[in-house]
Amino acid sequence: MLTYIGRRLLQFIPVLLGITVLVFLLLHMIPGDPATVLLGQDAPPDEVERIRNILGLNEPLYVQFFVYLKQLLQGDLGQSIFQDQSVYSLIMKHLPATIELAVFALVIALIISIPLGILSAVKQSSWIDYVSMFFAQLGVSMPVFWMGTLLIIGFSVNLNWLPSFGRGEPLTEAFSTLVRTGNLYDIVQSLRSLLLPAFTLGIMSAALITRMVRSTMLEVLKEDYVRTAEAKGVGTLSVIFKHSFRNALIPIVTIIGLQFGNLLGGAIVTETVFAWPGIGRLVISAISQRDFPLVQGCVLVIALMFALTNLVIDILYTKINPKIQQR
């Protein structure tokens, strides 16, 4: 197992290197530069050049890249140009909020998609199946910002049930307060602030997972061993969950793992709509300010987390199907 994990980790190195090169080149191709943004459009040219020299922006592009790569190999993500903090500290400050949002969004997606996908497969071609697939198609088609705006108008502006923006106390701290004092207020407020952005972020994943669960279950339900179990008089629930869903898990685990990675990277729009203080909103701010080190650090961390998510999926694969490890 350790050999398998080590081999998979080695495969991530060229992927991360490729992402680093691509992001570095794209950032330096977009119009504008940090010195002009930092000093303003009316700044004297001499002062702009002085700042560019300080930031190393007048060096050839390949020199800038190798300086940055050297810093990365030393475990240094660099210093933010516009904020008096290291890139690492800024990312660690905002990353927990994104992870909390992505995890909660995935939980919502699974609560919706797995029962809906199974029910749709079992009741194939019924009104339940058609309604489920309609909502799945709607979830895939609707833009995230539009979904978020509708939810804000409905549940925050009109009904005034849930807050429209911002983050409450982190769930870990709210849960700690609950354990210490027995006071539910903090955790209720945290969940209220989390519900709308998590639902907005998770609804597309729910739609994709629903379709995957349905298609996989339809294939498994046609297998001979399922029909044999039904002929032997095995209970319906046992046929569905023990014989069918259990054997459909491999592709479902894949799509769930990939969706979690997508949730981490796709939180940018959701965090912007709901003013959620996560890494996605940090990326948007850094791009608008041309804060190259901060953008590069954020994208690299997101890519690393996506790679680690894929590693966890591979490990789960080997537990579900040990033959995969032998390939």
CATH architecture title of the largest domain: Orthogonal Bundle
Oligomer: single chain
- Distance, first to last CA: 12 Å
- CATH topology assignment of the largest domain: MetI-like fold
**What structural class should be given to the helix and strand makeup?**
mainly alpha
Major sheet = none
Q: So what's the CATH class of the largest domain? A: Mainly Alpha
Mean pLDDT, to the nearest integer, reads 83
CATH homolog superfamily of the largest domain: MetI-like
The total number of structural domains is 2
Gyration radius, in Å: 24 Å
* Helix proportion range: over 70%
The residue ranges in which pLDDT falls below 50 over 5 or more consecutive positions are none
Number-wise, the strands total 0
- Shape label: globular
Q: Mind sketching the topology for me?
A:
Layout: H1 2-29, H2 34-39, H3 45-55, H4 61-73, H5 87-122, H6 127-141, H7 144-158, H8 171-181, H9 185-221, H10 224-231, H11 236-245, H12 249-265, H13 267-273, H14 279-288, H15 292-320
Short summary:
The chain has 327 residues and is mostly helical. The chain is 77% helix and 0% strand. It has helices at 2-29, 34-39, 45-55, 61-73, 87-122, 127-141, 144-158, 171-181, 185-221, 224-231, 236-245, 249-265, 267-273, 279-288, 292-320.
